[in-house]
Specification:
alpha/beta, five-stranded mixed beta sheet, globular
Length: 194
């Protein structure tokens, strides 16, 4: 594992709480160098808090619309565990901590990943208003649907800090909003991927 990657895992792990408390959603203020999106996620062992993977939004870097922080973190955890089902029999329960409620796409990824717990900084349309991103249509009963499938949801963990980060991001002059069917703002023009 590279030094930068190891430092990043230690930094995220340091923000985690004890095994009986939900892990804090990753701080978007500490993304990898050169990363400029405010979304981050971490997958941990729910009992020990051991960091299994860290994900940041890589849509612009990869040119792939599905590379949201939650999907990246879940895919890395699944690859590390060599299974698509993080909740498979005999596996310790895992937790996904995210710095806001998942968008419509990531909601599906959470449903099918096998995580036992979702910890989020908050929910609601604040992120859309502050950043211009289209989070997609969410079911009003999204938390109940997750609970019915065995996923515990904890919310409002570091909410004020997350909102401050999203507010700061949304006020930047170089924000690129890459979703919403081209209806988002984009300054400067999005980079071309070859």
């Amino acid at each position: 594992m590279g030094r930068r990657r190891a430092r990043r895992r230690r930094a995220v792990a340091a923000r985690c709480r004890g095994p009986d408390e939900p892990r804090a959603p990753p701080g978007p203020a500490q993304p990898p160098r050169g990363h400029r999106r405010p979304f981050a996620a971490v997958v941990t062992d729910a009992a020990t808090g051991a960091v299994l993977s860290v994900g940041v939004n890589l849509v612009l870097a990869s040119g792939l619309s599905g590379m949201h922080a939650e999907v990246v973190a879940l895919c890395l955890a699944q690859a590390g565990a060599a299974t698509w089902d993080l909740g498979a029999a005999g596996r310790p329960p895992v937790e996904l901590a995210v710095n806001w409620r998942p968008c419509a796409m990531c909601y599906g990824a959470v449903l099918w990943s096998g995580v036992a717990r979702l910890v989020i900084a908050g929910e609601g349309d604040e992120v859309e208003h502050l950043t211009g991103f289209d989070e997609g249509p969410m079911r009003p009963d999204w938390k109940e649907q997750l609970a019915a499938r065995g996923v515990e949801v904890r919310t409002d963990v570091l909410r004020a800090e997350a909102l401050a980060t999203f507010r700061e991001y949304g006020e930047r002059p170089d924000v690129i909003v890459y979703n919403g069917g081209g209806r988002g703002r984009s300054t400067p023009a999005a980079p071309q991927v070859r």
